[in-house]
Amino acid sequence: MELGQLRALREVQARGSIAAAALALNVTASSVSQQISALQRAAGTALTYRQGRRTALTPAGLALSRAAVDVEIALARADAAVGAFRESTTETVAVAAFNSAALAFFGPLDQALRASGGPPVQLVDADVAQHEFAALAADFDVVIAHRLPNSAPWPATVHVTPLAHEPLDLAVGAGHGLATHKSVHPRELRGERWVSVRHGFPLEGAIEMIGTLAGEEVHVVHRINEFFVAASLVERGNCVALMPRYTVDRNAYPNLVLIPLQEPQLGREIDILTRPEALERAGVVQVIAALRLRMAALLAANAAVPADSVEPCPSP
Question: Is residue 78 classed exposed, middle or buried when 0-12, 13-18 and 19+ CB atoms within 10 A define those classes?
Fold first, then answer.
């Protein structure tokens, strides 16, 4: 039995004829007749009969018509429940982010939502490979993800809200010989000791590219995936590394210096991934708005070096 068939039966009972029911439903009389015939076949018994010029319901038809009322009530309640869920800002919004984004976003996000009466959030850090971020949208309402600019786009199964393009800079300690430079060319990095990432992660290829441009194989002494761990090591030692420009908290690492690379131009795209239906929820929309405000604050606090201030390094 289909909802349209039950509605046709109810209208026939209420209006006394197939023609009047058709007019009320804004369909043709033949369409109503077909709906009633299909419903009778499903019920296995006659549901209507002729009573003079009127179409009346049999006892079975009356019983089914009354049951249809309960169906309509249940559907109306379901629609109301869905509407309330979509408009609610009290339902928890689950947010996942890669580790450096979690460090930059989670604290301010939770604080901002509490201050504004926004939805409660469940925050989870997710250290996954780039191709696994989209799948996280099945388990989380909001996913903060990153990808390299030349990599494949996110799949069509997720809605993408771009946050920012984040450059990757050279990171050195304040006492390092390059710390006062406004920019660095790869050839100035010959002989440096590198903090790289574990084998197979995208940043490894970027560091190897720097070595190629420098004319030598880079000397990797440590392999650390977490930027905040690498930052703690770099600012205290004589190693160098690549660091994201916006999501590393400079206040936490006062002796860390980030220097733009003249070449190659390295960076990553930071995006918010959601399932399209999640955007129907007011709470999810509010969380995304808060994340965009936080990203804007990070951009303002870590203004990129203007192109005209980048000075070419002397030839070796």
Answer: exposed
Contact 240, 171 (CB under 8 A): yes
CB atoms within 10 A of CB 215: 10
Q: Which pLDDT score is estimated for 314?
A: 35
Cα separation, 68 vs 3, whole angstroms: 8
pTM over the 0.90 mark: no
**Which has the closest alpha carbon to 146: 124, 128, 173?**
128
For tokens 């979690």, the residue is 102
Q: Max CA-CA distance within the chain?
A: 107
Give the angle 277-282-283 at the CA atoms, nearest 5°.
Answer: 100
Distance (Å, whole) CA 283 – CA 89: 5
Per-residue pLDDT tens over the stretch 45-60: 888 888 888 888 888 9
Pairing label, strands 239-244, 219-223: unpaired
